[in-house]
């Protein structure tokens, strides 16, 4: 057992480092970050970096060469990400498009789609978003109501999507809609590529409970999409969406934020029962529990990487990651606030300990436990796919969609 | 990245697994529960025959001279089968203590016999209903004689020798030393005790001027115990995840066969999520165990933290799987006939064997604080 690279991996890592050294600035500490900018400037900065990566041969590493990818393995991708995280580079704007949407185009698109969309995505010229969730379909995405009706060579879309990250700056999206309400819900869906600048698409930001606006709702009013933008056959939309969702669950892992070390440092500075909080047994027990969870998740990732490094399919163990990290994120934030006495209610980056990270985490954890698969859906997935337990009885499974109670 | 066991180690694991599924199913464990034999001698003999008792003992002392990783895979299978054998006492504790603190003569005297299974060893620590420490250990060693009573000594009625944590009169942590005692010698009285898990025998042992030998340096007993327990914690954690996994699959299988309200109980989320949580805790523990195994094998500087993390998470995984397995079974799971009890009993036995999670969590944080200050 060791954590070492194979010879080939070490060579690739050296190549990546040499390239990053020439093209980016190394972080001085792990907390080092790029200055924050307004949306337009931040987009421009991200676009430039994506183009630089594409030219250097480090964008979309696992995608096929014929469409502009690098034809590399998953482990190459992991090595690149590990190294890139040590440098001050922009992140975020491209994660959903390149992590979920364009891979779906690669898996289900026609030759024309791939020729048209893949290369501009790799170079950062076009940004993508994902339009699945609806007010009436969150965990039960297949219960969605947005509909598309065929009109000649076009489809006419009407309805509403929600929780769409980046819809206000994206160029394209993949949208799943109901094209046949007369068949059971999973069978009447179809996926389309949609130009976000189309007439009838309206994007409105959602103000979250935390006060921030990281997502949008998107309204479709008589939006016309050519039939040639269809991904897969009419009625295959659910199968196509599953490709995207599998990628999403891989992408959403690891919560980041404050962990046991930040809690320990808070525990040294705050008092409980006239002693340093870190000498309190209840505090020590929590620090230990969260240390053990964090280490467990880290080494679970290492087990997955080992399988990738050996060219094997990773086991199902990575499915535990978000269930554990989301609960930890929220509980740790809440507990750390308890250590701050009555002032723990203050959520002000200027005065709250460690830039209000604990208050933000307590608040944000409530969303993180839902995003990209709720705690409950993730447990269903473990129970059904890993442990072979049966699905819940689904009363809507064989009934036509238009006969379901709504 | 090569964070996995080798093919040879997996092969060893499979052969131990096969032997145990042939010779040590839960029916065999039940014979120890219901009968008057303190352990499954036939299973022990089969383990000895496979050579696994000498896995980590150097060849010069009659062992196989393999690393800790081989012992980890054996431990996981022993845990899975809930084997009623004195393996942990003899191998993780007595053997390890001799390797850590024994004199050359003591190693030569005992290790070959421990490797060959001719001698079974154990480790005697507790004296009352409290965590053992330099403040509470009173069994006294002086002038080559041992006096006092140790309680709940694992496999105390089976073992031939015991490593005993004894008071040698120094101050603070230096009060304690490790000594080795031949339990067949004069002045030793052994009384089996009733415990929560009769499939692993325990005994109270009273020493009255029993001849014993100091191991290593006087006053280093507490520190050496910590070293022995760090490695034992990793190995025992593998037993715990083996048991936790067996309990999880038992719950899963029952959920796929029992109907209630016209449906398989495994189709209710209350049951599914419970079993999914068993899996989550199990895999978290397994990952911590792997790192513990790696640190143990490499004698890495992070072994104390890694061992604590493995022990804490494996204890929790086994606790949850064993207790909720009974809950999934409902009333039948609480009967004497049901096999659920074996994991339930063993999970708590192992949870206390090296000190509870309360002790290990505090120890872990103390280590993190030291590392942080350094």
Structure report:
The complex is a heterodimer of chains A (406) and B (374). The longest helix of chain A is centred in the last third of the chain and has 29 residues, at 281-309. Chain A has 11 helices and 12 strands. The mean pLDDT of chain A is 93. Chain A is globular. With 406 residues, chain A is an alpha+beta fold. Chain A has 3 domains: 7-91, no CATH class; 128-248, Beta Barrel (Butyryl-CoA Dehydrogenase, subunit A, domain 2), CATH 2.40.110; 253-372, Butyryl-CoA Dehydrogenase, subunit A, domain 3. Chain B is of the alpha+beta class and 374 residues long. Chain B folds into 3 domains: 7-116, Acyl-CoA dehydrogenase/oxidase, N-terminal domain (Butyryl-Coa Dehydrogenase, subunit A, domain 1, Orthogonal Bundle), CATH 1.10.540; 121-222, Butyryl-CoA Dehydrogenase, subunit A, domain 2; 225-373, Up-down Bundle (Butyryl-CoA Dehydrogenase, subunit A, domain 3), CATH 1.20.140. In chain B, 54% of the residues lie in helices and 14% in strands. Chain B contains 11 helices and 9 strands. In chain B, the strands form 2 sheets. In chain B, strands 1, 2, 3, 4, 5, 6 and 7 form a 7-stranded mixed beta sheet that branches. In chain B, α7 (221-255) runs antiparallel to α8 and α9 packs antiparallel against α10 (340-353). The longest helix of chain B is centred in the middle third of the chain and has 35 residues, at 221-255. In chain B, 56% of the residues are buried. At the A-B interface, α7, α8 and α11 of A face α7, β9, α8, α9 and α11 of B.
């Amino acid at each position: 057992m060791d954590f070492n690279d194979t010879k080939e991996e070490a060579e690739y890592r050296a190549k990546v480092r040499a390239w990053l050294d020439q093209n980016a600035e190394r972080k001085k500490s792990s907390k080092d970050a790029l200055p924050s900018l307004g949306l337009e400037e931040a987009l421009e900065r991200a676009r430039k970096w994506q183009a630089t990566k594409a030219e250097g041969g480090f964008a979309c590493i696992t995608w096929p060469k014929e469409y502009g990818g690098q034809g590399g393995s998953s482990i190459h991708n992991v090595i690149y990400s590990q190294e890139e995280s040590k440098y001050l580079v922009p992140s975020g704007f491209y994660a959903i498009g390149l992590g979920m949407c364009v891979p779906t185009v690669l898996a289900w698109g026609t030759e024309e789609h791939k020729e048209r969309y893949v290369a501009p995505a790799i170079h950062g010229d076009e940004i993508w978003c994902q339009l699945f969730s609806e007010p009436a379909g969150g965990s039960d995405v297949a219960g969605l109501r947005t509909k598309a009706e065929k009109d000649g060579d076009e489809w006419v879309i009407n309805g509403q999507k929600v929780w769409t990250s980046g819809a206000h700056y994206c160029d394209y999206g993949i949208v799943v809609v109901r094209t046949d309400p007369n068949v059971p819900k999973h069978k009447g869906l179809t996926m389309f590529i949609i130009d976000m600048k189309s007439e009838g698409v309206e994007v409105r930001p959602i103000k979250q409970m935390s006060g921030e606006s990281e997502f949008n709702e998107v309204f479709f009013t008589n939006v016309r999409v050519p039939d040639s933008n269809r991904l897969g056959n009419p009625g295959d939309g659910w199968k196509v969406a599953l490709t995207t969702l599998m990628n999403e669950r891989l992408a959403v892992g690891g919560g980041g934020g404050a962990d046991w070390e930040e809690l320990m440092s808070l525990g040294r500075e705050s008092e409980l029962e006239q002693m340093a909080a870190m000498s309190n047994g209840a505090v020590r027990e929590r620090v230990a529990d969260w240390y053990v969870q964090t280490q467990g998740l880290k080494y679970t990732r290492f087990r997955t990487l080992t399988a990738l490094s050996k060219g094997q399919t990773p086991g199902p163990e990575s499915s535990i990651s978000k269930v554990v990290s989301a609960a930890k994120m929220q509980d740790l934030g809440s507990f750390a606030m308890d250590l701050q006495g009555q002032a723990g209610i203050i959520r002000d980056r200027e005065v709250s300990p460690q830039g209000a990270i604990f208050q933000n985490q307590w608040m944000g954890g409530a969303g993180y436990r839902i995003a990209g698969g709720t705690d409950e859906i993730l447990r269903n997935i473990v129970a059904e796919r890993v442990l072979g337990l049966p699905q819940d009885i689904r009363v809507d499974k064989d009934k036509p969609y238009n006969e379901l109670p709504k | 990245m090569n964070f996995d066991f080798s093919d040879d180690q997996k092969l060893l694991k499979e052969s131990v697994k096969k032997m145990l599924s042939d010779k040590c199913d839960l029916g065999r464990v039940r014979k120890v529960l219901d009968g008057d034999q303190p352990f499954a001698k036939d299973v022990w003999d089969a383990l000895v025959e496979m050579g696994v008792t000498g896995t980590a003992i150097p060849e010069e002392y009659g062992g196989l001279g393999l690393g800790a990783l081989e012992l980890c895979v054996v431990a996981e299978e022993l845990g899975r089968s809930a084997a009623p054998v004195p393996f942990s006492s003899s191998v993780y504790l007595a053997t390890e203590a001799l390797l850590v603190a024994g004199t050359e003569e003591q190693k030569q005297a005992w290790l070959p016999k421990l490797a060959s299974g001719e001698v079974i060893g154990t480790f005697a620590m507790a004296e009352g209903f409290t965590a053992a420490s330099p403040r509470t250990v009173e069994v006294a060693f002086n002038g080559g004689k041992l006096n006092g009573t140790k309680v709940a000594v694992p496999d105390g009625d089976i073992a031939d020798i015991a490593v005993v944590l004894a008071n040698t009169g120094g101050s603070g942590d230096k009060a304690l030393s490790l000594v080795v005692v031949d339990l067949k010698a004069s002045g030793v009285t052994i009384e089996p005790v009733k415990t929560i898990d009769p499939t692993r025998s325990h005994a109270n042992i009273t020493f009255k001027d029993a001849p014993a030998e100091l191991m290593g340096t006087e006053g280093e007993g507490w520190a050496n115990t910590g070293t022995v327990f760090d490695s034992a914690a990793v190995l025992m954690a593998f037993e715990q995840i083996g048991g936790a996994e067996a309990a999880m699959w038992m719950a899963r299988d029952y959920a796929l066969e029992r109907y209630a309200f016209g449906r398989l109980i495994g189709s209710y989320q209350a049951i599914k999520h419970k079993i999914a949580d068993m899996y989550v805790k199990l895999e978290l523990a397994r990952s911590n165990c792997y790192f513990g195994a790696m640190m143990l094998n490499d004698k890495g500087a992070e072994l104390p933290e890694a061992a604590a993390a493995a022990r804490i998470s494996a204890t929790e995984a086994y606790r949850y799987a064993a207790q909720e397995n009974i809950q999934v079974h409902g009333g039948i799971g609480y009967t004497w006939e049901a096999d659920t009890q074996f994991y339930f009993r063993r999970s708590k036995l192992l949870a206390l064997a090296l000190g509870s999670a309360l002790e290990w969590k505090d120890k872990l944080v103390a280590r993190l604080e030291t590392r942080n200050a350094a």
